[in-house]
Amino acid sequence: MSAAEEKPSDKIDALIAGLDDWRAETLAKVRKAILAADPDIVEDWKWMGSPVWCHDGKNIVVGNAHKDKVKLTFSQGASLEDPEGLFNNGFGGKVWRAIDIGEGETVDAKALTALVREAIAFNAGRRR
What we know:
Elements: H1 8-18, H2 22-35, E1 42-46, E2 50-55, E3 58-65, E4 69-74, E5 97-102, H3 109-123
Helix pairs in contact: 1-2, 2-3
């Protein structure tokens, strides 16, 4: 299978395996929490190398491993309720919100899964 034919989930696996520091474990943990939100979540690979999790053809969250953080950007984050206060970036915009996770920081997996469910419901035109 050529790189162009490689499945997005395999590309995400390779991205995680290629990280030689704390970002690998962090990205793997948030991936697991995202996928736990709904069995119909589809992994995609967009924008020249970003893992993207989608539901019913709509982007939910983009994950990136930057030099100093793992960043989860929610496409419609500004419209989502975030009772656990996971969002810590993007407050100046009207659409997206992000969760930046630095070395030594963790994200509550249950709260992240709930936030993904909120995003799915919002994208479907309904809230849970």
